[in-house]
Write a structure and sequence with these properties.
Elements lengths: L5 E2 L1 H4 L2 H8 L3 E2 L4 E2 H4 L2 E6 L4 E6 L11 H10 L7 E6 L12 H7 L5
Parallel strand pairs: 1-4, 5-6
Antiparallel strand pairs: 2-3, 4-5
């Protein structure tokens, strides 16, 4: 899991599955997945199987603010142990280009440093 994502112990136990699912959900304007783009800030999984994800977008005018959270909910509910999912969108702290992963930078043609 990325060091810049706050994750509790229950979610950390299934982090590989979480990452796989998040890497399939793309920001259509940037054409990079939400995980490598750095849009995910926090993932928490409770005892009842509820997963709460805190995320942002690259810009407040992003056209996918309605669709991407729905895609995340549907995708994460397919993971064993997750019964329900909620997505909280936050604008603080604001997303910065420095949140893009090394892989994401290479994919976008940006210097990986």
């Amino acid at each position: 899991m990325r060091e810049d994502i706050k994750i509790n112990d229950r979610a950390a136990a299934i982090q590989e599955e979480l990452i796989k699912k998040l890497e399939t959900i793309y920001d259509p304007e940037v054409e990079l997945d939400v995980y490598n783009l750095g849009l995910i800030y926090e993932i928490n999984l409770d005892e009842a199987g509820h997963c709460k994800l805190v995320m942002t977008f690259t810009d407040t005018a992003c056209g996918c603010t309605e669709t991407v959270p729905v895609e995340i909910v549907e995708s994460l509910k397919k993971i064993e142990g997750i019964k329900t999912v909620s997505v909280e969108v936050t604008w603080s702290p604001a997303w910065k280009i420095t949140r893009i992963s090394r892989f994401g930078r290479i994919a976008l043609g940006i210097s990986p440093r």
